Amino acid sequence: MFSLELLFEAALFGVLLGCFYAAVSLGLSVAFGLLDVPYVAHPALLIMGSYATYLVSSLGIDPLLSGLLLMPVFFLLGMGLYRFYYETFEKRGSDAGVRGLGFFFGIAFIIEVVLILIFGVDQRSVRAGYIGSSLEIGDFRFPYRMLVAFAVALLLTLVLTIYFSKTFNGRAIKAVGQDESALRLMGANPVKIKQLAFGIATAVNALAGAMLIIVGPVEPAMDRIYIGRTFCVVVLAGLGSMSGTLVAGLILGVVESVVLMTFGASWAPAVSFGLLLVMLGVRPQGLFGR
């Protein structure tokens, strides 16, 4: 039976879930929101980050530390991906967005197939002392795995917000999608700035992938679940807003948690697409518009 206590419990869990959604959407917020790159391979690279974390943690390293160690590798991977995208599509001008969309869909498909060939279709998980235990406060129980995701989302948002607002390269990344000519006059190379930004977006995926496998088991096809949720968070926030991504993640998490409690789990996946359609119809620029 519906009660205020259950609603409050759902809202609390939704806050933790929302911070997790924000953490897995930050990389897309940089690549799609700031650079206007149709980065639909983002969820696939997120899952790849989870499996990379699984491999590194199998050596006895904590999953969270594994994600941090993988960030430089994913940073270089992201820089390489953008360079190939630029030379093949963006540099040629016309139809770069449409052709790039096909390119990144292809990347996502290749990643999924390779993961299936290597790991099979079975779910994989990691072990850590904070996975499977909870913090009890009164009648409420907060899973430590969700609290870890909550803390990481706040830290990532803070670090990226400071970087984009206080450093020259960060401000250049925010400006490159708006006026490349003005950026050249300031002595910055727009291509190198975009390459740096794409590297950052992909590096964030390594840590977000670690969060994903800490929160629950993963499988190669799970990227299809998160493509709607991550794009919903980025569009809801307003393209390129780091703090807005956190707020949008919280909104999605709370609404999804309440819908799950009220109507059942089968309705929860529809929440992100519903919010996305409403936002595009009512306020296309998002809550915190660029």
* Structural class assignment: mainly alpha
Assembly of the depicted chains: single chain
Strand order within the widest beta sheet: 1-2
Please report the number of helical segments.
Answer: 11
Per CATH, the class reads: Mainly Alpha
Shape: globular
Features:
290 residues, mainly alpha, ABC transporter involved in vitamin B12 uptake, BtuC, globular
How is this structure best described in words?
The chain has one domain (4-282): ABC transporter involved in vitamin B12 uptake, BtuC (Orthogonal Bundle). Helix content is 73%, strand content 3%. The protein is built from eleven helices and two strands; from the N terminus they run ααααββααααααα. It has a two-stranded antiparallel ribbon. A hairpin with a 2-residue loop joins β1 and β2 (140-143). The protein is globular and about 60 Å long. The model has no long low-confidence stretch (mean pLDDT 85).
Question: Secondary-structure map with pairings?
Answer:
Layout: H1 4-34, H2 42-57, H3 63-88, H4 96-119, E1 134-137, E2 140-143, H5 144-166, H6 168-176, H7 180-185, H8 190-215, H9 223-237, H10 242-263, H11 268-282
Antiparallel strand pairs: 1-2
Helix pairs in contact: 1-5, 1-8, 1-9, 1-10, 2-3, 2-4, 2-8, 2-9, 3-8, 5-6, 5-8, 5-10, 6-8, 9-10, 9-11, 10-11
